[in-house]
């Protein structure tokens, strides 16, 4: 998989595949806030995504408060967003859909 930073145009094109994610002002990360029914579901989602992240060797910056999970994805080595972030975002979206989001 290509680790290069996606620049403005390529980034916007790639984001069409993960339309619930927003780009930060400086275009160095993509973010999404997930809201689940309760803490149990939020944490189950995080457990599932943590295993997927390990498999990809690509890890989210995230936080959890009760039923909310805030996620920021970026490729540190590339100094921005790469296709690895888009791929992980897609996997997280798919996991969230299984929780009815
Ligand atoms: C050595 C290892 O592959 C790197 O440190 C990986 C690990 N996980 C990572 N995760 C994320 N989100 N960005 C990275 O640049 C990154 N680098």
Give a short synopsis of this structure.
This protein is α+β, with helices and mostly antiparallel strands. The protein contains three helices and four strands, in the order αββαββα.
Observed structural traits:
3 helices, 101 residues, EC 4.2.1.96, alpha+beta, Pterin_deHydtase, Gyrase A, domain 2, binds ligand H2B, 4-stranded antiparallel β-sheet
How is the secondary structure organized here?
Blueprint: H1 8-15, E1 22-23, E2 30-35, H2 39-56, E3 61-65, E4 68-73, H3 83-98
Antiparallel strand pairs: 1-2, 2-4, 3-4
Helix pairs in contact: 2-3
The protein binds ligand H2B.
| Second CATH tier, the architecture | 2-Layer Sandwich
Q: Outline, from the CA principal axes?
A: globular
- The strands making up the biggest β-sheet line up spatially as 1-2-4-3
Unreliable runs = none
Discrete helix count: 3
Number of domains: 1
CATH topology: Gyrase A, domain 2
What is the straight-line distance between the termini? Answer: 28 Å
Beta strands, count: 4
Q: List the bound ligands.
A: ligand H2B
The amount of helix comes to 40-55%
Structural class: alpha+beta
Q: Please tell me how large the radius of gyration is.
A: 13 Å
CATH hierarchy, class: Alpha Beta
Task: Provide the CATH superfamily.
Answer: Transcriptional coactivator/pterin dehydratase
> Biggest sheet, open or closed, and with what strands and sense?
4 strands, antiparallel
């Amino acid at each position: 998989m290509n680790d290069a930073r996606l620049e403005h145009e390529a980034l916007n094109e790639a984001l069409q595949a993960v339309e619930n994610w927003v780009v930060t002002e400086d275009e160095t990360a993509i973010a999404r806030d997930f809201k689940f029914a309760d803490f149990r579901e939020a944490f189950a989602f995080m457990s599932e995504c943590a295993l997927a992240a390990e498999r990809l060797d690509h890890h989210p910056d995230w936080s959890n408060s009760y039923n909310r999970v805030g996620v920021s994805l970026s490729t540190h080595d590339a100094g921005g967003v790469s296709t690895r972030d888009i791929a992980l975002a897609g996997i997280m979206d798919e996991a969230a859909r299984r929780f009815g989001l």
